[in-house]
Structure to design on (372 residues):
């Protein structure tokens, strides 16, 4: 007896509800995975940033080894050169900064050698040929967590002045010039950036600026008289040996992070790596007046030419001010990377106390810091 054909096998597919459940599960898993991926990515960026700072600190040490133990200056500035403004058409301005001076010790000696004589000539005759390199992009000068590098600033023109355009490139690392920003001079400069020129040590004139325990006399609790010299200043760099005698190389910040301002405006000069000015490649006057902590969210904090006030996003600044004051800033969660004068790199939390931040930035306040 022959058998008839087998009935066709029916394949059961996903119902709409089952499909939606699967999609929901996948979405939940992705939602759980993304923060972990971002966390790992940020951790890697922070490590890369710390390594960049380490290499810059080593370059400063190697520079000192070949210059009688003395660190590079924050910036060279001839007599009469404007320390606080860079303007279109301006011809008498500051010269090479600490990054330019340390290029030979960062595997950039061929580039440096192209302009070595011009760099040497600046203090004698104001030679500005070295500025031909200021538009160069260097990944080693950038923190992977920050953005905005392709927007430049003023351009040194053929006649020796400045014009807006494709000029100064951006970076994220600054030397520490120390200094105090205070409301009056009383024999000392009231402007943070100028207060340490030539190795001068400004002193705190009022208690109100800090109001919490920075002291030259631990018994009285007064912060009046506290000193705030910087390790790398206008026309001056301290010797590593003297830093050891003062507060100690392990208690003094040499370099720190900062953020580029070009995400706010192409006229915001913050992060211009080759310009030796506050907020560009220098921090100074931090932990004083209205620029108190790293990554501060204070209104009108930095004083940098062309800056935009964005305190809610950690970029507070006083529009219309010249270059006078700037604190350390980063896009890392919770703090900033810093390199100390002994070459070690430390992550300083945004929650650091103001007295501790002051003492870490001052090379000679007479107080050592062991817990930060």
């Amino acid at each position: 007896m022959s058998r008839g054909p087998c009935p066709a096998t029916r394949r059961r597919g996903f119902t709409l509800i089952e499909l939606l459940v699967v999609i929901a599960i996948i979405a939940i898993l992705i939602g759980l995975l993304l923060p972990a991926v971002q966390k790992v990515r940020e951790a890697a960026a922070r490590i890369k940033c710390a390594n960049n700072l380490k290499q810059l600190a080593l370059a400063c040490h190697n520079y000192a080894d070949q210059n009688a133990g003395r660190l590079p200056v924050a910036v060279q500035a001839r007599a009469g050169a404007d320390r606080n403004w860079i303007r279109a058409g301006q011809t008498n301005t500051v010269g090479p900064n600490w990054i330019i001076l340390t290029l030979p010790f960062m595997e950039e000696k061929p580039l440096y050698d192209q302009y070595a004589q011009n760099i040497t000539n600046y203090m004698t005759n104001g030679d500005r040929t070295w500025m031909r390199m200021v538009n160069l992009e260097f990944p080693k000068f950038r923190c992977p967590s920050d953005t905005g590098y392709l927007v430049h600033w003023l351009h040194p023109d053929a006649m020796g002045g400045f014009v807006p355009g494709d000029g100064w490139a951006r970076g994220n690392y600054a030397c520490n010039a120390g200094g105090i920003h205070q409301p009056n001079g009383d024999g000392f400069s009231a402007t943070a950036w100028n207060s340490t020129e030539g190795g001068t040590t400004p002193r705190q004139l009022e208690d109100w600026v800090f109001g919490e325990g920075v002291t030259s006399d631990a018994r009285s609790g007064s912060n009046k008289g506290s000193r705030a010299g910087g390790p790398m200043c206008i026309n001056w760099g301290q010797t590593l040996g003297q830093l050891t005698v003062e507060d100690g190389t392990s208690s003094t910040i040499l370099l720190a992070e900062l953020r580029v301002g070009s995400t706010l405006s192409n006229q915001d000069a913050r992060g211009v790596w080759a310009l030796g000015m506050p907020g560009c490649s220098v921090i100074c006057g931090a932990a004083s007046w209205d620029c108190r902590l790293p990554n501060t969210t204070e209104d009108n904090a930095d004083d940098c030419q062309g800056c935009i006030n964005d305190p809610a996003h950690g970029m507070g600044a006083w529009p219309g001010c010249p270059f006078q004051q700037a604190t350390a800033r980063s896009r890392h969660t919770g703090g900033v990377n810093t390199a100390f004068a002994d070459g070690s790199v430390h992550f300083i939390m945004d929650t650091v106390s103001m007295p501790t931040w002051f003492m870490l930035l001052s090379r000679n306040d007479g107080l050592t810091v062991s817990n930060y």
Q: What stands out?
A: The first strand starts at residue 154 and ends at 156. Residues 16-65 form the longest helix (50 residues). The beta strands are 154-156, 162-164, 173-176, 232-233, 236-237, 253-257, 282-283, 335-340, 345-349.
